Automatic annotation (TrEMBL):
It is an enzyme of class 2 (transferase). Its EC number is 2.7.1.71. Monomer. Binds 1 Mg(2+) ion per subunit. The keyword Cytoplasm applies. This is Shikimate kinase. The gene is aroK. ATP binds at G11, C12, G13, K14, S15, T16, R120, R158. Catalyzes the specific phosphorylation of the 3-hydroxyl group of shikimic acid using ATP as a cosubstrate.
């Protein structure tokens, strides 16, 4: 079954764009983090606190495989780190997967994350200065994996509707 997979750094808009793309296409939307939370009955924060990041990455890999194997057509919003662990980046190239990297600049990510960090354990306790440096370095490290997506859409200075439109062009 066909899967549209959205990936990119925290705050690039995966969850928001996937939801809006779903409304337009009528293809059901699944957020990988939400699926992990529902299955484990814990929030992402609680998983990191109680079991640590390595355990989260294991759940994330298993859930990604499970969603890709389902019989439905789906739009899947990944977590920001999903492509960067457990060789998940190789799954972005599968024949039945349309993978789209939502590419955002450090400035865009910082502006969106600075007031939205509490549910993101990797940055939740950072001050503004630390966050800016962290995003810059981390994005650089992760870009190798994000660039395994089949398609790339730049999201800087684009509204939600414009980005959804850019993805619709890829799907046409
Ligand atoms: N043009 C835009 N496209 C996507 N998200 C945007 C845009 N402008 C502002 N936002 C906000 O940025 C945040 C993106 O968060 P989210 O969708 O959770 O990203 P991700 O799932 O990639 O971490 C949301 O608070 C969203 O409302
Ligand atoms: O970048 C990451 O490693 C993470 C991103 C989060 O998802 P979002 O990108 O939707 O915030 C979530 O999976 C977890 O906090 C780890
Ligand atoms: Mg998300």
């Amino acid at each position: 079954m066909k899967k549209i997979v959205l990936l990119g750094y925290m705050g690039c808009g995966k969850s928001t764009i996937a939801q809006n793309l779903s409304k337009i296409t009528n293809i059901p939307f699944l957020d990988l983090d939400k699926c992990i939370e529902e299955k484990s009955n814990l929030s992402i924060n609680q998983i990191f606190e109680q079991h640590g990041e390595i355990y989260f990455r294991k759940l994330e890999h298993e859930m990604f495989l499970e969603l890709l194997q389902s019989e439905e057509n789906n739009i899947i919003g990944l977590g920001g780190g999903t492509p960067c662990y457990a060789n998940n980046h190789e799954l972005l190239q599968k024949e039945d997967v349309t993978s789209v990297y939502l590419k955002a600049s450090i400035e865009t990510l910082y502006d969106r994350l600075v007031h939205n960090k509490s549910k993101r354990p990797l940055i939740a306790n950072m001050n503004e200065e630390e966050m800016k440096e962290f995003i810059a370095k981390h994005l650089f490290d992760r870009s190798f994996y994000y660039n395994h997506a089949k398609h790339k859409v730049v999201v800087d200075n684009r509204t939600v509707d414009e980005t959804v439109g850019d993805i619709m062009k890829i799907l046409a």
